[in-house]
Structures are given as C-alpha cells and as structure tokens.
Amino acid sequence: MRIKGLWLIVILCAMLPLSGCWDAKELNRRAVVAGIGVDLAPGKKDYFVSFQVIIADEISGKTGRGGTPTMVYSAQGRSIMEATRKVSMLVPRQVSTAHTRIIVISEELARQGISDIVDFLDRDSDIRLTAKIYVAKKEARARDILSGLSAMGKISAYTLAQKTDISSQEYSSHYPIEIDDVIRDILVPNSGPIINGVDILGNVEDARKKSNLEKTDALGLLRMSNLAVFKGDRLKGWLNEEESVGLVWIKGKLNKTSIVITPDDLGEITLDVRRSKTSMHVSLKDPEHPVVLVKVTAQLSVREMDSTIDLRDPAALNDLETYVNQEIKKKMKAAVDKAQTLNSDIFCFGQTLERQHPKAWKQLKGQWSDLFPELTVEYHVDSIVRNSQMRDRSFKYDMNQE
C-alpha cells in the first residue's frame, strides 16, 4: 500500500507542470493579423503601421453579415511597437501577429532605410522569420496593398504570398524572399537584399472596394512587380523585367521561364525553360583583378513557332541553341550591369571569392566597393533543346514548300 501511495504522489507531482497554456486566449478574443504594412506618417518622422485583420465571421460564411473578409486598422507612432500598441484603441480584441504571412514596406520608407523595421521583425517573438517581405512600388502605399481585395482567395495577404510562390515557379522574374533572407543579405559587405516589389494594376481606390469583386475585369488588382535593389538597408533602384530574370538566373533560383528568339529574322520562336542549373567560379590569374565565371546549363522545349525552320535538321537545332545562349547571356549581363551601376553586390560575388580564395579576399575586402563596379564577369551558357512538344516543324514549313 505504501508503494502505491508513493506512486500516486509521484504521478500527482508530475501532473503539476501539465496545467495547460498559462497565457492562452480564446480565438474569439484575438484579432488575427494576416499582413503588416509600414509607411511614413505625413510628418515624415513617425511610422504609420497598418494591420490586415481577418474577420472570422465573414470567412466562415455562417454568421457573416455580407461584409469584407478582412479589415485594415492603422496607427501612428515613433516606433513600430508604439504604433502596434496604439492599434488597441481601435480593435476590440488583442492583436495577434503569429499568423502574419506578408510584410509590406512603402518605397518612400525603403529609400530612407529599413534597419529599424528589420530589427523589430527579428526581435518580435510572434512574427515568424518565414514571413514574406515586399516593397510597395510607385504611388501605392503599404496600406493600399493591404486594403486590396482578391477574387480568388478571401484573405488578400495570403493570396499575395501564393502569387509569389506560383509566379516564381512559372515565370521566375522573382523568387520568394523572407525576413531571414533580408537580414542575412544586409550583413554582406558592399551588398544588400533583393526584395520583391508589389503594386496595384488599375485604380488604387477600386482595389479596396467590394464591388470590384463583382466584375469579371477587376479595376484594381494586386500585382507582383519587379525586384527592388538595396545597398545595406536602403533602396537604391529597381530592376526591369529582363534584369529581374537575369538576376534570378545568376542566383540559381530559376524554375521555369519562357524565352522568345528571332533567328535571322525568320520569325519568332518561343521556348520553355524546363530545367536550369547555375554555378559560379572566381578566377584569380591576376590577383588584383578577379574574374567571375557564371556557368549555366539549361534544358528547353519548343512551345510556339512563327517560323519555317526545319526542326528535323540537327544543324537548325544547333543554331537554335546558339540563339538561346545569347538571349540568356543578355539577360544576365543586363542584371550585372544594373547592379554595378548601383554599386551593390546583390549576387554576392564577394562571398564567392571569400569561399574559394579566402587569402585573396583578405587583401581585396577593403577595396571591394571600388572593384565591384569594374568587375569582369564572363558567361558560359550551354542550352539543349530536348523536345518540340507534339510536332517538330510547323505546318507553315509545308505551306512554304508549296
């Protein structure tokens, strides 16, 4: 009996730490935040922070009143934390940022520097470092992006995150960029992060109206834009579409994309890139003038032909691959030229040099800001056309023969 009594005491003592979550709050007492936007306040000194809050009743559809599925609450403060606390004067529930999927920063604020914002995001115990980060382009504010509604997906913040994943897999003019990626890139000497841009296609005011969802052609639509180039924590400029694809290619993050070529003015041919691999090597034949070698191997398929080229001819395929190689080189060179103009080593060529030639890097590290704008980059592209889908040469070839 004593042994059973001792075991009972042990079990009761073991149960004491298992009393549940001491700080748990019921869902109906929380305001779940899907996205956070940060703008400059009208005085240009304070932050204007916006939160896209999910209206659970409208999402469920059972107790909904026909309103929008999200609501945007904003407050102004000298710091992001102060603005967050002030939101409690507007929201009747405790703001919960644990499910935040996107962070949007206005272009105006990004040009002044984002180090304070990144520090807050890194320090906060609720916001996950896997949240995606964006820069609101042109006239759109971060609040405008969060206020936009989406016809496909009730929560527009989550829809924007899904757009990033899908479009990066299908077109590759950008790739998913998270808070943790930004922190690491800010710490790279003479470099800076790359952040996805987002803007509104159409009218900013229409994007936030529920009536916009009742039309087949939305007058205001959230759209993935090109990539923003930073040096340190400050926005320095934007890449265009061709430069964005070139950057993604050099970084080895390209999944799929399309290439349109015009061989000898014989009509346009569109090819689909199905696989691609990128590698980088730094040559130090001249220790004072390193040369970066970027090597790309790609596999493609022919998808459209407005040409009479005979794809059954091996020589014609070889010529096709040569044109593709030139087009890929053109995109990558355009991206490098823009980065050198902005003097931001967004490709981390310096880190590659450090890994491959650590002794040489110690000598060149202090000069890298002067060396990078004049750095020689060579491109070696090896493309292979694997197939031409359901037919080889176009029916236009037969028409031309007649």
Considering the chains and any ligands shown, give keywords for the structure.
Ger(X)C family spore germination protein, 15 helices, membrane, four-stranded mixed sheet, 402 residues, GMP Synthetase, Chain A, domain 3, single chain, signal, alpha/beta, GerAC_N, nine-stranded mixed sheet, 35% helix, 13 strands
Description:
The protein has 402 residues and is α/β, with parallel strands linked by helices. It has 2 domains: 213 residues, no CATH class; 162 residues, Nutrient germinant receptor protein C, domain 3 (GMP Synthetase, Chain A, domain 3). It contains 15 helices and 13 strands. Strands 1, 2, 3, 4, 5, 6, 7, 8 and 9 form a 9-stranded mixed sheet that branches. The chain has a 4-stranded mixed sheet with strand order 10-11-12-13, sandwiched between helices. The longest helix is centred in the last third of the chain and has 29 residues. The N and C termini lie far apart (105 Å).
Please give the alpha-carbon distance between the first and last residues: 105 Å
Q: Which sheet architecture does the biggest sheet show? A: 9 strands, mixed
Give the helix/strand class.
alpha/beta
Report the total helices.
15
**Helix content class:** 25-40%
Tell me the total number of β-strands. Answer: 13
User: H/E element string?
Assistant: HEEHEHEEHHEHHHEHEEHEEEHHHHEH
Strand content: 25-35%
Return residue spans where pLDDT drops below 50 for at least 5 consecutive residues: none
Question: Which whole number gives the mean pLDDT?
Answer: 87
Question: Rounded to an integer, what's the Rg over CA atoms?
Answer: 27 Å
**Domain tally:** 2
Choose one word for the global shape.
globular
Subcellular location: Membrane
Main location: membrane
Pfam family, one: Spore_GerAC_N
Protein name: Ger(X)C family spore germination protein
